Amino acid sequence: MALMVCALWFFTHPLSTSTKSPKHVSASDGVTSTQYCNPRSRAAVDLRHDPANPTFYDDPTLSYSIEKPIENWDEKRREWLLHHPSFAPGSDGDRILLVTGSQPSPCKNPRGDHLMLRFFKNKVDYCRIHGYDVFYSNTFLHPNMRSYWAKLPLIRAAMVAHPEAEWIWWVDSDAVFTDMEFKLPLKRYRDHNLVVHGWAHLIYEEKSWVSVNAGVFLIRNCQWSMDFMQVWASMGPQTPDFEKWGQIQRSTLPDKMFPGSDDQSGLIYLLLKEREKWADKIYIEGEYYFQGYWLDIVGTIDNVTESYVRIEKKVHELRRRRAEKETEGYAVVREPYLKNAGYGKDSWRRPFITHFTGCQHCNGDHNPAYAGDSCRFGMEKALNFANNQILRKYGFFHPNLLNPTDLSELPFDF
Ligand SMILES: *[C@@H]1O[C@H](CO)[C@@H](O)[C@H](O)[C@H]1NC(C)=O
Q1: Which of 18, 203, 178, 26 is nearest to 92 (CA)?
Q2: How far is ligand 1, taken at its centre, from the CA of residue 298, in Å?
Q3: Any idea where this protein resides (predicted)?
Q4: Is residue 6 a part of any domain in this protein?
Q5: Domain of residue 90, residue span
Q6: Which of 53, 216, 252, 413 lies 20 to 30 angstroms, CA to CA, from 80?
Q7: Distance from Cα 304 to the centre of ligand 1, integer Å
């Protein structure tokens, strides 16, 4: 199903990153049709100028802080968009801002910082290919909301800073895009405001702490999300109720082993206890690796690589060199050959996002359950696997996924 939706999307939006459909810009914008010959035309730039009319930015009572609720956000956003028509949703669908980040201070050792850079490079690569904006934060916007709680004040501020973005896509620093071609099936989420990876039966029957993963999610830039984040953040360390929430979460989720209140448990708690209020707008994605646990994935990378090579050997179209900008079109050609690749441990489709949960690359204190260097080898392999998909557009590849300095020239039409 996931693959179908994705394939259909590609076919109906073949030039998604580079074109702008004239039908979305009205005549009153003063844009003539000829200017569409160049999507970055002068007219498009002019429209970005300050409008004369005041917007919500001129309201001195408006705050970016998660502690100050925002009201009528949908109207405020809509009005801003009205004054900035060049940012209306284009033929490429909804605008996405990917948000990620890390602590303000250095990692415990240089290897951690080096990995941080490579994890970020991976996100920049993905965003460049698909035309998404990316914001990296290296500050805690609320002094008491650190580590996994830091994302909420950041997303709140990003929503206000980016009224043009329909979605904010939070991606943890330790998550790697391992399929550079795959695109989010946004049409599927049309009626939802929050998308997380997980399994409904683990939430509602097992009440498991790991029934969803809060390290990667899409959240719509709308009033619902503002309200939801307000309630979600009320379990955070900035409140006097923090300890109490830790106890409540533990008594609600039997497999939660640590005492502090955390954002993931908070999300599951709200799904369980305020289901009627929120759950119908929350999409629990379980049909592809919206994010996947690295231990399930890393061991499959060699076989996945091989199966893609096997397909490419059969299909001349897939061996042709293309410009990096044509990557999405290339994906469309490949899609039919991935029809039966499936999802999960036995899949030979590239996993979309590989998440190094528990590896703690920045402080080096990985979960003791992970044997020896498994985290380090896993990250190396996933990063080089992803980078090969990029390097290929530049004529090279890493023949050995555990050695990032080893490089070979890509043969033409091998
Ligand atoms: C990889 O493929 C081989 C050959 O088909 C198979 O024997 C092996 O179990 C696969 N490995 C994994 C981790 O799936």
Answers
A1: 18
A2: 13
A3: Golgi apparatus membrane
A4: no
A5: 73-409
A6: 216
A7: 10
Q: Is residue 174 part of a domain?
A: yes
* pLDDT tens, position by position, 220-233: 999 999 999 999 99
Q: Tell me whether residue 16 is in a domain.
A: no
- pLDDT tens digits, 79-135: 999 999 888 876 667 899 999 999 999 999 999 999 999 999 999 999 999 999 999
Domain count for the chain, please give it. 1
Q: Return the best residue to mutate from 298, 303, 305 for the ligand 1 pocket (most ligand atoms within 8 A of CB).
A: 303
* Cα–Cα–Cα angle for 250, 251, 254, rounded to 5 degrees: 70
Nearest CA to ligand 1 atom 13: 300
Ligand 1 centroid–CA 303 distance in Å is: 6
Residue nearest to atom 12 of ligand 1 (CA): 300
What's 230's domain CATH number? Answer: 3.90.550.10
Residue closest via CA to ligand 1's atom 2 equals: 303
- The set of protein residues with a Cβ atom below 6 angstroms from ligand 1 is 299-300, 303
- Between helices 242-252 and 263-273, what is the axis angle to 10°? 60
What pTM, to 2 d.p., does this model score?
0.87
Domain membership flag for residue 199? yes
